[in-house]
Amino acid sequence: MNTVEADNLKYLLKRVNDRVFTADLSEVELAALARIYIAVHNMVVVNDAEEEYGSREFYRRRINELYTICSRRCINEQVCLEKRILLIYTLYQLLLNPTLCFVDHEKLNQCEKMAYEVVTECLQRQTAHASDNTPLSFNALLLIMELCGSLSEEELEEEEMIRYFRAQLAQWIQVLGQRDHWNNLPDKEALQRLLILCRNSDIFLDATYDEKICRLKEYYRIRLSVVANRENENTGYYQTLSLLYEIIKHDGFLSSDSLSVQKIIGSMQQGIEAFPTDSAEQLFCLSWVIEGMCRQNLQEANQKMVNTIYC
Fold first, then answer.
1. What is the pTM of this model?
2. What is the 3-state secondary structure (H, E, C) of the chain?
3. Nearest C-alpha neighbor of 6 from the set 35, 44, 37
4. SS (H, E, C) 93-145
5. Do 226 and 272 meet the contact criterion of CB atoms below 8 Å apart?
6. How far apart are the first and last CA of the chain?
7. Local structure of residue 279 (DSSP, 8 states)
8. Helix 105-128 × helix 160-176 angle, to 10°
9. Which of these, 80, 87, 201, 273, is most buried using a 10 Å CB contact count?
10. What is the pLDDT of residues 195-220, one digit of tens each?
């Protein structure tokens, strides 16, 4: 990362670090802040960059503060089911994704208990309204993978939620047929499906749909323009870009599609200016810019290490 990029990252971080965490932060804002502080913490720890970007202990405190806010809200009965799902998914990220941090197993057990309860409630509602044929939400499917990712294949076979999960993926592929895209499906929903399929391959080591996944990736990468279109600058547009970013990340730590990643980050930077100051939408875009810049910093450091070893 050159000096200009490093200064830009410091400037963006100052905008976030000056914020006071309050109990009225929305679920989207909490998820965005978690994304930022996990990304910066990991960059600082791995690259030993405390002098340049601040103490790792500061970022760990911020992560713990976010965990406390999310966990308290999860037990609030007035919070709707879909919001609780998003909050619990954020809790998983805060617990498991910071690098070189001790995992608090008591907190993890509490998180898994809450996750099991909300997914079970989702399935019960699904059974009660079977005639609606409405699939579980994207966030609920993500949560199932977090909850069941460490189970053995024998344990997975006994889990009702995994049977439902696998049936949902099979139905998507059946509808897809021999095509390389889903007909009459909005890009955002299509990329949500593709991300779930990618994570299914990674988390459960399931290669069943790998050939289909490759064709889908190729189609949607070509289809989606990642250069911001002023007519499309709305929340859904940037959510779609974030999904494409996450899908590209699944190709490996050093993605061969770095040009697309750079364009996505550039579009997200424009998004920062497109929304009102301190709005949830602005913070969403800001979180992906910071995540992308931290990842770029890590990639460059990793490449330097590789060059040192082999040169």
1. 0.92
2. CCHHHHHHHHHHHHHHHCCCCCCCCCHHHHHHHHHHHHHHHHHHHHHCCHHHHCCHHHHHHHHHHHHHHHHHHHCCCCCCHHHHHHHHHHHHHHHHCCCCCCCCHHHHHHHHHHHHHHHHHHHHHHHHCHHHCCCCCHHHHHHHHHHHCCCCHHHHHHCHHHHHHHHHHHHHHHHHCCCCCCCCCCHHHHHHHHHHHHHHHHHCCCCCCHHHHHHHHHHHHHHCCCCCCHHHCCHHHHHHHHHHHHHHHCCCCCCCCHHHHHHHHHHHHHHHHHCCCCCHHHHHHHHHHHHHHHHHHHHHHHHHHHHHHHC
3. 44
4. HHHHCCCCCCCCHHHHHHHHHHHHHHHHHHHHHHHHCHHHCCCCCHHHHHHHH
5. no
6. 21
7. -
8. 60
9. 87
10. 999 999 999 999 999 999 999 999 99
Q: Which amino acid is located at 115 in the chain?
A: A
Place of tokens 């502080």: 37
Whether 232 has a pLDDT exceeding 70, the answer reads no
d(CA 190, CA 192): 5
